[in-house]
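Exercise 7 asks you to align residues with tokens for two separate proteins.
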Amino acid sequence: MKNFYFVDDNKQNKSILFILREIWKILIEELLKKGIENIQCFLNMIIPEISKIIINNEKSMINKNERYEFENECNQVIEKSILNYKDYYSNYIKNNKKILDYNIKSIIQETSNFIS
């Protein structure tokens, strides 16, 4: 994985949007290397667990050990999700198809004026 530091770049001011775009590009590259092609699906998979870790975090993140423990916990979720991605992806597609079918049927029913 590439190291990504903007701290060393004092020659030009980088906007937060620029930094986020660069991080997003690296995220996509790294996930593609792991065989993850649907980024939205993968994020849907990890965000609930990662958000719990963040919300329940009581560490101050002042020392390296606390930060390491926090990052390690997040990495475990990510690694587990990478391993389970294919199974999750097939369920994700199946569920999205059901939702789409239901929504299409609802729209057709709501917009049609058939009198029986």
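Second protein for Exercise 7:
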Amino acid sequence: MTENQCPNTRQVRRIVVGHEYAKKLFSERLRTVNGLPNDAEFVRAYEQPSRQAFVFVFQSATFSPVEEGEEMPKYDIAFEEIPEYHTKPKHNRD
């Protein structure tokens, strides 16, 4: 079983964040535009050096079940950079 496979039947999704975007996640100038469901719970995190990325796994009742051994689907989150005065916002998707 690989890291991306579900260990048992669960309502989980994975969020993949490239190393180059990891620092931006903690920026004061970034806000989430499309985030996780309110009931989402953190399950685990791991690094995938081959993809130069971190993977965060969350569980939510709103996610459809993933059967044991199946690859966990990715969940896309959108962020928006908060512009400085007199600039337009930039959108980043991971």
